[in-house]
Specification:
heterodimer, A: 3-stranded antiparallel beta sheet, 3 strands, globular, B: alpha+beta, Penicillin-binding protein 2a (Domain 2), Beta-lactamase, 5-stranded mixed beta sheet, 5-stranded antiparallel beta sheet, 22 helices
Chain lengths: 427, 625
């Protein structure tokens, strides 16, 4: 890192390889692990055919091409094209709402000939690019209400469209990535509090549907939170009026929030409660969480061995080549394998954050942090789900899960990261 | 300018963001270690358990024999067609629907209904039975036609079979498949699997626990879709234990005679015959009409069949224990005893002559013989069933004393016969009248009651049990249908068990003798109303009864005791809406008594010979096929 800081580092930087090893190596290892796991889950799994595996390899190839292409496009070009990408992605998201293929109650796919495209995946990258472009402008100042509203609108549009499918997990992915990019772009802390507080309050108030008990439990958690937030607002020298308004607003949300829970789709409610109480519904969505934990847990230190996972082979594992691919890894390669995978993600994410910091251009820096957050969010939510720590949201695991659109998208995003890394000295 | 262009701010933010991300990943790593290392053993065990499916082996239902060892209820092989919806060929639900429709058409079933059942079974990971009890000649063509359909199996399962057809259908009852509604009851769900048979009425329901047996279990290693795998060595199955066989005190020969006798009374006859041994309470005959074929229930009824069974005639009703009738003149036994006990008459007392009617208050109470009986003593009055004589006993006794005496006998108490849903009759008391009339009952009621009309209703079994006690030693025995069974491996021991005394009637030896004399006179007497019950070579006792029926023709009743000098059988026959007991009911009872007294197939002892009919397999086999 030292070489990147001072002027003396310029010579070394010129010699630095275009293909950043700390990005490329973990991604390649993850892709290989993913291919093995998909092979095990499809060819030797309950599906019993190689067709899915070949499709996975094909998607890998397309993804690699996308990564190479995006890595070579100059940042300037990406920035200029970003409104076009964004517009096209939003059009696709609109189209899918009307012409999409439905599966288990949600419209998520567009059928184009033999291909099935999930437009919400490329939309993530398009949103990152345009948001980076927007936030990188000299005029943009997030302390001004106009700039902030513009940025929020860019995030909210795809999130709301995806919500209509409905796909809560992906909609939250847009919000998470957008929020981190805003923070990176200098969002003042007190605005962050104002933005995040409604969600926190609503979450605490909705707990009554999940945790039975007297209301005092929830009040005990909520009151200190509001007091802390008010204190932080005061420290940021906000006026008392604003603070009073804030507290009143929070109180109103706390009272109204239970209706939000009631407004959720029944399958979403079921997923959340199945996450908290899997034993209540062992045959429904709780089944997946239980079976996934059984498969991972039975892996032990070293796992059952490649292609030898019994839970996988007997199809006790649900959606094992897509959302629950990590369970196959856990069962067949044990703690050693599964923890190595986690470590590879950690290396990749850390490197992404470093590139974001080192990038001189604001656009490149924002793209880097956006892509890093996207990969982190998917990884953390997916693995937490397979480990029984998060509800079943249907988010795939980057580089490992079968699923063309997302695999191509995540590899393309890695291409962007490499491109940004290679040009991090450019202003 | 908010963007952190200076490196110091950037480094701080980068550390915060990367720190949170890496911290969360570390948390996932800790959870991973917890699941795989700390709880690994536990999950490995659960993973193994995942893969073994327990499949029930149906237990053979215990067979039911009559007292001579004739088979009344057994089992036979039923050919079933079932479809495994979880078969790998049906990953595509369209193919599953197509397959289930093909099968439905071949079986002649409604394709929509079959497709629905198949679809629902898919989530349960167990094959769904599409057709039960296929005719054997249909099986071979089906195998040929349906062989290409994946996941389809033609299986065999035991099914309840009543070789005697409709004989004693009410007594035996029937079995039916356990319903989805019942399976929602956790108690039942623990004991019955889907598709299991459950006794629904009669002996089948009463002795369900004994007859049912215990299902066995095969352990099959399966995958998550319930498909059989050979991943693990098979665990030895736990064999099924067949239900214990049951032996009834019923005599199929007498039962058949009783049922034919009832049917002889006309088409669509309704009625009941019950016969029991007054010394032990053993029930020899328990017949009811109209009837049904219990075999029809074994593979499920169609809606039309079920509706036909719930017609106004109520074929499912066992009239022996579930229908109550005014006893008519049979009740004169009670009136006589009440008169004797209170001393208002003695056997020699001659009362006012019968001119065909008796005036009381502003009403005229008729005798059944309009020309009248003239002046009679007790014996003649009972023999000819003179109503006017009994009106006078009622007058002398008064309503209160008559009711109080009848109450002592507890005529309307449930007999405790081993049948489900026995119904009690009604012997009203003073308080009952006050509650229903709102005032003290008029004395005229006593007159009606004395000849067994009015509010009093008794079931045939209640009448039989009372008379059995009244002609023997006054001890009321619980009527019993089934012998005590001790089923052991290979051999069964039946014992009749000890008679169970429920209560004792407050009767003296002389009173019992008096009842016998009177009942003998009512059959053997010169002018006896029950002449048609006579059996050559034996002295028979009895009493006719005609019970007024507000809804139509009178019901004909007859109670017989054979032989009267040493009672071994008490018969009560009821023929609904058939007029006089003497003409319609007495011949039915006579046929039963005659067959009983002149047995044609050997001695009657129950503890005799081999328990099973010759040729039946010793183990838990399935008869026929």
């Amino acid at each position: 890192m030292a070489r990147a800081l001072g002027g003396s580092g310029r010579g070394a930087a010129r010699q630095a390889a275009f293909w950043d090893g700390q990005i490329l190596l973990p991604v390649m290892l993850l892709v290989v692990a993913g291919a093995l796991a998909v092979y095990s889950a499809t060819v030797h799994g309950p599906g019993g055919g190689a067709a899915l595996f070949w499709r996975h390899l094909a998607a890998l190839l397309v993804g690699a091409l996308a990564a190479a292409t995006l890595a070579y496009v100059p940042l300037r070009g990406l920035e200029d094209l970003s409104p076009l990408f964004y517009g096209a992605a939003m059009l696709l998201l609109l189209t899918v709402l009307f012409a999409g293929e439905a599966a288990s109650g949600a419209r998520r796919w567009l059928a184009i000939g033999p291909l099935r495209l999930q437009p919400s995946e490329p939309a993530k990258v398009a949103t990152i690019l345009l948001l980076a472009h927007y936030l990188a402008r000299k005029r943009c100042d997030l302390r001004r209400i106009g700039s902030l509203a513009g940025a929020l609108a860019l995030i909210a549009l795809p999130a709301l469209l995806v919500m209509q499918q409905p796909d809560l997990g992906t909609a939250l992915a847009f919000s998470a990535v957008g929020l981190v990019m805003l923070i990176w772009a200098g969002l003042p802390g007190w605005i962050l509090i104002l933005l995040a507080s409604p969600l926190v309050t609503a979450g605490l108030a909705s707990l009554k549907f999940l945790i039975p008990g007297p209301p005092s439990v929830r009040v005990i958690a909520w009151v200190p939170y509001v007091l802390c937030a008010a204190f932080l607002l005061r420290r940021a020298r906000r006026s008392w009026y604003l603070i009073l308004l804030f507290v009143l607003l929070q109180t109103a949300i706390a009272i109204e929030a239970p209706r939000i829970w009631e407004g959720l789709e029944p399958y979403q409610q079921a997923r959340v409660s199945a996450f908290l109480y899997p034993e209540r519904d062992p045959a429904g969505s709780g089944y997946q969480v239980i079976q996934s934990q059984i498969a991972i847990g039975s892996g032990g230190w070293l796992g059952a061995g490649f292609r030898k996972g019994s839970q996988k082979a007997l199809a006790f594992l649900p959606r094992q080549h897509t959302d629950f691919i990590y369970s196959v890894v856990g069962e067949e390669f044990g703690f050693v394998g599964a923890a190595t995978i986690l470590l590879l993600y950690a290396v990749l994410i850390f490197r992404g954050a470093v590139l974001a910091r080192e990038s001189r251009g604001r656009f490149g820096s924002l793209v880097a942090i956006g892509v890093t957050t996207l990969i982190f969010y998917h990884t953390a939510v997916n693995i937490a789900m397979t480990l029984g720590l998060a509800p079943v949201t249907g988010l795939p695991l980057p580089f490992l899960s079968f699923g063309g659109s997302f695999l191509v998208t995540s590899l393309g995003a890695v291409g962007l990261l490499i491109g940004v890394g290679a040009r991090r000295r450019e202003q | 300018m908010s963007f952190p262009d200076d490196l110091g701010t950037r480094r701080l933010r980068m550390r915060a963001i990367a720190g949170v991300m890496l911290g969360l990943l570390l948390l996932l790593g800790l959870r991973l270690g917890y699941l795989q290392i700390v709880r690994g053993e536990e999950f490995r065990w659960q993973a193994r358990k995942n893969m073994v499916r327990q499949e029930p082996i149906p237990a053979l239902r215990g067979r039911i024999y009559d007292r001579q060892g004739r088979l009344l209820a057994g089992n036979r092989v039923s050919h079933t067609v079932s479809l495994e919806a979880g078969h790998p060929a049906y990953a595509d639900s369209l193919r599953l629907r197509a397959a289930s429709q093909t099968v439905a058409v071949r079986l002649g079933r409604d394709p929509r209904e079959v497709a629905g059942r198949v679809r629902r079974s898919r989530d349960r990971f167990e094959p769904v039975v599409l057709a039960r009890d296929l005719a054997p000649q249909r099986v071979a063509p089906l195998i040929e036609r349906l062989a290409p359909i994946p996941g389809l199996t033609l299986g065999e399962e035991p099914i309840r079979f009543y070789p005697q057809g409709r004989l004693a259908a009410h007594l035996l009852g029937y079995v039916g498949e356990i319903t989805e509604e019942e399976l929602r009851d956790p108690q039942l769900a623990r004991r019955y699997r889907r598709g299991a048979a459950r006794g629904r009425s009669g002996i089948e329901a009463q002795y369900e626990r004994i007859l049912r047996g215990t299902e066995g279990i095969t352990f099959i290693s399966v995958d998550a879709l319930g498909r059989k795998t050979d991943l693990f060595p098979e665990r030895p199955p736990r064999p099924a234990e067949a239900g214990a066989d049951l032996r009834l005190f019923l005599d199929a020969r007498l039962q058949r005679i009783a049922e034919r006798g009832l049917e002889g009374a006309g088409d669509g006859v309704r009625g009941a015959v019950v016969a029991l041994d007054p010394r032990s309470g053993e029930v020899w005959v328990c017949a009811s009409r109209p009837d049904f074929d219990p075999n029809r229930f074994a593979h499920g009824l169609t809606r039309e069949e079920w509706e036909a069974l719930n017609q106004p005639g109520h074929p499912l009703l066992n009239r022996v224990a579930q229908a109550a009738y005014p006893p008519g003149s049979i009740f004169k036994v009670v009136s006589t005893l009440a008169g004797l006990a209170h001393g208002v008459i003695d056997p020699q007392t001659r009362l006012d002559p019968c001119w065909g009617a008796y005036e009381f208050g502003d009403r005229s109470f008729g005798c059944w013989k309009e020309s009248g009986h003239g002046r009679l003593a007790l014996r003649g009055a009972f023999e000819q069933s003179c109503d006017v004589y009994y009106y006078q006993i009622a007058r002398r006794l008064g309503l209160r004393r008559l009711l109080e005496y009848a109450a002592l006998l507890e005529l309307d108490a449930c007999t405790g016969i081993d049948l489900p849903q026995e119904r009690a009759g009604l012997m009203p008391e003073m308080t009952w009248y006050r509650r229903h009339l709102g005032h003290n009952p008029p004395e005229g009621i006593a007159l009606n009651l004395s000849i067994g009309q009015g509010e009093i209703v008794l079931t045939p079994i209640e009448m039989a049990v009372f008379l059995a006690a009244a002609v023997t030693d006054g001890r009321v025995l619980r009527p019993r249908l089934a012998a005590v069974t001790h089923a052991r491996e290979g051999s069964e021991i039946w014992s009749a068990g000890e008679p169970e005394i429920v209560r004792e009637l407050p009767l003296t030896r002389e009173q019992i003798q008096q009842v016998r004399d009177l009942m003998e006179a009512a059959v053997e007497g010169e002018r006896a109303t029950g002449r048609r019950a006579r059996v050559e070579g034996f002295r028979i006792g009895g009493k006719t009864g005609t019970s007024q029926n507000p809804h139509g023709e009178d019901h004909a009743l007859f109670a017989g005791v054979a032989p009267i000098d040493d009672p071994r059988l008490v018969v009560v026959a009821v023929v609904e809406q058939a007029g006089h007991g003497s003409t319609m009911a007495a011949p039915v009872a006579q046929a039963v008594m005659e067959a009983f007294l002149a047995p044609i197939d050997g001695p009657l002892a129950i503890d005799r010979g081999p328990a099973r009919p010759a040729g039946a397999p010793a183990g838990a086999g399935v008869e026929g096929s």
